Amino acid sequence: MIELKNLSKHFETSDGAVDALRNINLTIQDGDIYGIIGMSGAGKSTLVRCINMLERPTEGDVLVNGRNMGAMSEKELREMRRKITMIFQGFNLLMQRTCLKNVMLPLRLSGVDAKTAEKKARELLALVDLPDKANSYPAQLSGGQQQRVAIARALATEPDLLLCDEATSALDPKTTHAILQLIRSINEKMGITVIVITHQMSVVQEVCKHVAILENGSVVEEGEVAEVFSNPRANATRNLIYPESSGNDSVFPEGGQRIRVIFNGAIASREPLIAKMAMDCGILASILGASTRSVSDRAYGYMLLDIPGTPEDLARAISYLSQTPDITVQVEAEYAAKEADA
Hints:
The protein has helices spanning 44-51, 74-81, 99-109, 114-127, 143-155, 173-190, 201-207, 225-230, 235-241, 266-270, 273-281, 311-322, 333-341, and strands spanning 2-13, 16-28, 33-37, 59-64, 67-68, 84-88, 161-165, 193-198, 210-215, 218-224, 258-263, 286-295, 298-306, 327-331. By secondary structure, the chain is of the alpha/beta class. α3 (99-109) runs parallel beside α5, α4 (114-127) crosses α5 and α5 (143-155) runs parallel beside α6 (173-190). It is elongated. The model is unreliable at 247-252 and 334-342 (pLDDT under 50).
């Protein structure tokens, strides 16, 4: 189990002090695939470097299985880091070494003899579906193949924790999907805990079980992926989940009564809710925007609706839609603010 307790990191720059992380508190259970997501500058990479103590936190603690990494000696840290490995956006392979020797490297550095290291490395290349690339050099491989070699190398020391720092950002969607499926398979087969650092919501949707949203160095929301996506509370979360609707108020009609209907499951998303509401309640809603997606084999998404008529009509629409299983209805913040001012 990984516990981050009151974790903060401050940097001094020529422009003054920068709070890269502010009072981070997270618990990541063994065997989880945990996503940490945020926009550029949110503090994601600083956080992952604090987890393995490549960056020393200014304040707070990092506990791995109850052991405080900040209190360890350099020798103890080296031993611990054998069980905490990383893969990166840039792959970080040694271009002058073959794929086999890249995977063998951490084993040889750990004192494993050449014959044993080669046998283990070949097994790992087979695990990532590259048994025929042992004697190839990284420059001869595609980006996805290079990342597979990097994953094999990361697994060489039989880690308990795999840190993925924007590991699929340089890959096309099809290759990204294949790498994420490989990470999920490794997690399931080997029981390795995985922390995925990313700015891509699609990555979290596809592979993560839990997620934390970072903004300006702070965790603004966390929980199970399905719950966070179906009922986002923080503005940062809403902007990540619904980027197509943020900042587009100018295309919507002035005034109106806007609600966001959030679908929390496949069955609910297939219901002709708007047509049924028109027939059952006589309320004709205008669809201002919509988006759906698949998370863990279930459909999630939203519709942004304009409800004409009186506040009573709005209340009836909310009541009607909220009675449907797997549906959440939110009054848009702008309209709610206007009502409060009135």
